[in-house]
User: Which sequence fits this backbone?
């Protein structure tokens, strides 16, 4: 291709379309992954009760849920295959995450068999499912981090936070079910439960920050359902019972049903979020393609005439189109031809749009970035101090409050000290 | 390609190599662009004196420098062609910036003719060259922003700051030359000069933060040359003369030579920085390719045996490989085969490396991001308040000091107020 301003412009447009097509693949991937997460959450719940009841309960339910997980696993696998067939649409980071997830999917059969033969404690089963789900959720996080369109990026961040929050609701169901089923209040379970409630609130707060109007409306409607009142009452019992004291085993079923209903309501919202995301990415691709055809047509038409636009020393070299007013007037005379005018106008429109998109992306990226830093610091503290996730998080939050610094700054300070032992 | 963990791993490696090859193209582009910037700086200097002396001085020098700029322009064009031939190696942002630059290069002939016929004021000529140079420098900024390897990203940020600082040195030469040549101290020139000195210091501070050992050593050596003492004496005269008072016209030549010597010294360092960058990117590509062959060989060898690694529910789903210690022990027994072990080890090594790279990239990205935010806020203030770049920068700095907030936070506040008039 000949080196010319119009060709550069077309190349820029084609890059945009290419990036949007990645988005299409990503939206498909995220939808499939989110669906499997939901299915595995249900299977985890049923498996926990199956194990906690020594195989007396939920055997059939569990079988049914396994079938569902399996069929959704196939969708995720086909979505991974699509990525593998289009390596240019992925990144090293994404393939690496998908490899971890695949390793986990490959080992699901073995996990299920161990559960079927009750060779696993319920806690271990919860942990194994939760790790696989965490891997799947991190695929969604990576997608949000890699998206270059601001509206899609916001939608993915909202979705990620929602799925993450819902996953914590799912874990809460599992831990609460274990507590009620055991008939006794265990301090560790109780602490974990309170942490999970806290973590859900943080996720849903971020969800609210990034969700669109429709998502918000749906979410608000979810806060006003009878199941919330029932859930809060049971949460109060789990949270305020003295460790060591008895819990009513009969509440076990009510707890599970109540959490399940809540999760199913959330699942409806998740479906809506994924559909919105896919619709949005389809629209963007269509728009960009139309735009490309228009620009291409316009530019080809113009290129048929001889270019004479050589006086345009002006308006140029400020990528954000903000030029020191004192330096702006053209050196002498006007910019020549229609070609010059139109090319420059197209270029200006495109530069403006790219700059605006980048501006809008930044707040989303920053939010993701802060989360990454806090997560990493938490991981570091867990490894160095050999403490639980809750303890690491509390330590960061306490230090942040004591020193009156933002949590992300405390997290960063923790990460930057190579021989950091305690804050 | 069949969906398997080893194939995912290979795809991740191939993505990395692809990204490194972009880096190779980028390093070439940045080298050519940096070289042209230097040539245009010299041409700008000679053109200013030519115009300020009403064509009596520097006519031959200017001709010679134009020839040099032209040959370097061809190198930049061929580097742009290389990008155009590999659209997948670019981005919409980069092509858009290159289109602006190309528009400017296309208009250079006209600019030169206007200068030759003295139809342009020296100030306008400086402005026109400076805009083209600013466009070229923003191509380097974009490259730094897009680099995914931490060592390359740091090298590009150092180079960008160095070239930006050197450009301000070049502008200082032009403004100082105008001042001395006019024989009188102009308040506006004086303000601009002080601003440029200040801006240089900021750029070189950032350069020092990101440069490697060799670059730093070279830079420190540059601070100890006789030319610095001469330059500082002349700067003192320009900076401390009362506006309206006379300046010694005879110092004009000394100023120009002195600045030129300083710029040439900087140019030597720039060459070294670009060479270092290209060498580093070549090494990375070679290493990654060797690595790919090794992994591919290893994995193919292993794939020839039947895979049995289905017990590995473990160590998996934490992308940063930091797993809650309480959940870590394998559910039951060991992970089976050599294939399982080796695949997981390769995957672990790769995930660890990607996470480490991302950590290291973040501080660089943050530095670039803060600069972008401050630049944007400056642009906004310039447009809204119709003030110069200096005034906008001072306003941000003053507000930052008054409110005891970081400048980037003030800049962000300014950007987030849609109807912002004055801080």
Assistant:
């Amino acid at each position: 291709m000949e080196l010319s301003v119009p060709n550069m412009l077309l190349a820029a447009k084609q890059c945009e379309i290419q990036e949007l097509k990645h988005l299409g693949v990503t939206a498909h991937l995220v939808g499939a992954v989110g669906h499997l997460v939901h299915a595995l959450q249900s299977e985890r719940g049923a498996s926990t009760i199956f194990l906690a009841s020594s195989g007396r309960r939920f055997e059939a339910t569990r079988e049914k849920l396994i079938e569902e997980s399996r069929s959704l696993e196939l969708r995720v696998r086909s979505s991974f295959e699509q990525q593998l067939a289009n390596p240019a649409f992925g990144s090293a980071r994404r393939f690496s995450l998908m490899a971890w997830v695949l390793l986990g999917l490959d080992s699901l059969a073995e996990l299920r068999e161990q559960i079927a033969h009750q060779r696993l404690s319920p806690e271990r089963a919860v942990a194994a499912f939760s790790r696989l789900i965490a891997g799947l959720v991190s695929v969604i996080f990576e997608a949000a981090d890699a998206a270059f369109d601001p509206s899609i990026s916001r939608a993915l961040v909202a979705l990620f936070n929602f799925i993450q929050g819902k996953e914590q609701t799912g874990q809460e169901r599992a831990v609460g079910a274990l507590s009620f089923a055991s008939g006794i209040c265990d301090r560790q379970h109780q602490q974990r439960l309170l942490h999970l409630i806290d973590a859900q609130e943080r996720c849903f707060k971020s969800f609210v920050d990034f969700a669109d109007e429709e998502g918000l409306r749906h979410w608000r409607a979810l806060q006003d359902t009878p199941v919330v009142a029932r859930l809060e009452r049971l949460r109060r019992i789990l949270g305020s019972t003295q460790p060591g004291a008895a819990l009513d085993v009969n509440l076990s079923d009510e707890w599970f049903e109540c959490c399940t209903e809540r999760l199913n309501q959330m699942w409806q919202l998740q479906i809506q979020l994924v559909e919105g995301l896919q619709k949005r990415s389809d629209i963007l691709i269509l728009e960009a393609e139309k735009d490309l055809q228009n620009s291409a047509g316009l530019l080809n038409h113009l290129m048929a005439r001889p270019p004479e636009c050589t006086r345009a020393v002006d308006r140029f070299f400020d990528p954000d189109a903000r030029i020191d007013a004192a330096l702006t007037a053209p050196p002498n005379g006007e910019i020549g031809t229609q070609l010059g005018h139109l090319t420059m106008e197209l270029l200006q429109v495109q530069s403006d749009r790219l700059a605006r998109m980048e501006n809008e992306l930044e707040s989303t990226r920053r939010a993701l970035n802060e989360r990454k830093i806090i997560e990493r610091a938490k991981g570091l503290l867990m490894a160095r101090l050999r403490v639980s996730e809750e303890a690491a998080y509390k330590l960061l939050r306490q230090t942040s409050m004591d020193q009156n610094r933002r949590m992300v700054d405390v997290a960063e300070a923790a990460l930057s000290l190579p021989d950091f032992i305690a804050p």
Notes: Chain A touches chain B through 99 residues (CB under 8 Å). Residues 381 and 392 of chain A are 6 Å apart (CA to CA). Residues 305-336 of chain A have pLDDT under 50 and may be disordered.
